[in-house]
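Give me the 3D structure for Cytochrome C-binding protein.
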Amino acid sequence: MYGGRARDGQPRHVPDSTASYTVPQTRDRFLAPDWHPGDHPAMPAVVASGRQPDVYACGFCHRASGTGGPENADIAGLPVACFIQQIQDYRSGKRSTALSDRIPQAWMISLAKAANDDEIKAAAEYFAAIKPKKLVDVVETETVPKPTVAGWFFVTKGDEREPIGMRIIETPTDVGRFVNRDARVRFTAYVPPGSVAAGRGLAAKPEIACAACHGERLTGTDVVPGIAGRSPTYIFRQLYEYQHGFRAGPESQPMIEVVKALNEADFLALAAYLGTLER
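Predicted structure for Cytochrome C-binding protein (279 residues):
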């Protein structure tokens, strides 16, 4: 069930977990459902429950293991310094969003301004300690199951298909588990034919050279985040926002230089290619 309609108070379950949560609990911004506690260290308070009234539980949106979803970000394994810098950029306005009314980013900006330095440090260290996992499968296709939007992400139902055009259609393989905030859910990202090869070629160009900053395998360094195996939707969104001035923090200049000569077809290709890589 999704869309906020299932509020019958009955406990929900997910595979390979003994936990149970009701739908109202999985919609509570001050609770991070912990379906698989063995997948991560003990959650600090800011991740597990936040601080009312303005600091939502980090694990509510980003899941207990930091995996997030296409609508926000996978922050597992993010370097501590990078994590803290992004929060500072949200606070200062150097990082914003192309759609000011887009709820995931609006919540993030609000939380960054309300959280204190100790909470930010605790969250940064917690998520940095979690090994990131590749949870997306990139599928090249000329047609895609017809999607609808539910809760800031795509859902595909039924057998009807339509041309993909120049789009990324990324959707959870199990919508019920995803909206119940199960961090083990996988995703399928449909992309146009030829996208992966085109992205591989772009990533290796001297003027782009992703590996120069993000490491030989694009899995990041001690200070630079990994981009391998990430949500293609997320990657596309970040490239777009760098190009249009919505990310302008002190570490952003190399990315701004890279994207200024690219177009949205290039963004799509790079996002598709990066999504195929192991983390």
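The two ends are 31 Å apart (CA to CA). Let me know if you want a second pass.
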